[in-house]
Structures
1.
Amino acid sequence: MNIGFAMCGSFCTYEKVFDAMQTVCGIHTVTPILSHSACTIDSRFGTASEHRATVQKICGCEPLCSIEDVEPIGPKKLLDALVIAPCTGNTLAKLAHSIADTPVTMAAKSHLRNGRPVVIAVSTNDALAGAAENIGKLLARRHYYFVPFGQDDPRNKPTSLVADFTQVLPALEAALEGRQLQPILLG
């Protein structure tokens, strides 16, 4: 299968996301996609150039980093599924409101025109606050599936949720069969 693997700017999750990407690459052909933030921002978790190099090494090809790069995904039916890991609150909001102004959101919009699955691995500090509504909207839409998620630090970050990135591949395989991996909410 041809899988798109899009990364947004939740930099603290990248090590786990790279492991998930490697796992998916072991079974499927992967086209990497990076948001503007993932493609350009240096953080305490590494530089943008280091992240791009890691993605290229794992996937064996350069990541797509622009709207122009990803727009052909739908018209050419390039992907069987699209994984967004990590998916930030900002990207959740844009997807929930059909805004396609980044490489990741345009990849999703273009891909969805073919009725194929989008698998979301959420990572946001406001998931149980402002982003909750957007998670709910996407849970109710066809072709959106979630990697199981839970609170990562309920005491210090009571509204934060993060996906269990070890379940990206099982969630992807379930989505390719048209079903949501359960349970969605982790204890």
Note: Residues 14-25 form the longest helix (12 residues).
2.
Amino acid sequence: MGEAGNRVAGALMFVGAAQFALFMLIAECIYPNYSVSKNYISELGALQAPTAFMFNASIIVLGLTAIAAVYFLWRRKTITNKVFLGFLALCGIGCAGVGIFPMDFQLPHAIAAILAFVFGALAAIASYKFQGAPASYFSVVLGIVSLIAFVSFVLRIDFGLGIGGIERMISYPTLLWAMMFGGYLMKE
């Protein structure tokens, strides 16, 4: 029973992260004059953006799949670590919140984005306990890269990547971790 819970949770995490990564890429390509370096990710979901529905629906799905994965892991008692499950749940709530409150809703959007960014990175780091090497090392490194990028983003240090580029250095490592961890859970 626990193995089935792991597989379902892993599939949810993989599908959620993969579909968001692909839809974000599609949105970036079809948004007129959009620059991954100069534009924020959330501009893809702004109410007047031509990609608003696609982006917001996709990030809400990402959040809901993360929350559902937490449910399956907790319910089946395959991972009972409350810290890890809490981090992942808060990340999922943040992701869904980013889509529910596009950047036009400044304060709720900012809170949701912080939840998604910070707790996604912390979930990646905390997941090291549940994986063997080398995946456990990759999880920690991806989480740390995301946290460093988050601090750089807040301090407006973009290392020549532009504000959109440094924001992607927060998001991409967490998405890569979610797909990797999802794969790990599916094999269990």
Note: The domain at 2-187 is CATH 1.20.1070 (Rhopdopsin 7-helix transmembrane proteins).
3.
Amino acid sequence: MSGYKYGNQTFDLIISSDDNAFNFLLEYREDLFPDTPIVFCGVYNREAPNLVDPSVFTGIVEWATEVKATLDQAFKFHPETKKVIIIADTNPTGIQSFKNIQRQIKGYKDVEFIRFDDSMSMSEIKDNLSKLSEDTIVLYATFFRDSTGRYFSIPEGVSAVTSSSNRPVYTMRLQYLPYNVVGGKMMPGVLQGEVAAKIALRILNGEKVENIPVVEISPTQYMFNYEQLERFGIKLSDLPEDSIVINKPDSFYEENKVLILAIIAFIT
């Protein structure tokens, strides 16, 4: 492969995002961008640090312990759980994310894990999710294409699952949170970007790539959707400390803060 588009250009550094870009650079970097340092992020492949030339590649691996933390919290909310439906397709990101999930669910001996992937149509998935038993929850990893070949954007895919499921849907990805998932222990993409940017600046300022090890523990945060907490009877007091809650209605005080303070001042 020759770099027609960028053949006459050189780059000080490349930042790649997600597994597809990472895999592409593993295969074609020497042909397209020889000697250009690479900082990767959004990569689910836990073997990434062992696959790269450490003198050229560094970055941050996504999803370190978020799966287990998310499931542990979901099981506290729903102690009756005996089954977990995992939504994970077989694109490169889906394959790596499912491998990561498999690694982290080995200790749950009394829970059955069932994968819904792109061997099923979205219609079949929705039908199955609408009939889940009370001892079941859903874990959404990634789903961009079904068995019919139809592609789904994030809003389309997540919304199709959450609107059909009669049981709570959890996730480890912040971009899914607005589409009616309950929540989970998440690695916000903005934090991945911040880490990658800081690494890139170190390299651009002269630090050698081989002296910057791959970050394998991603920064995470418990985040939840208030509307879904309400739907499934989960109290705010039951959330982990320092959890972030979106769609939380403002209190009467917050909505009328100025008026209340004015009245207090007048009475005083």
Note: The two ends are 78 Å apart (CA to CA).
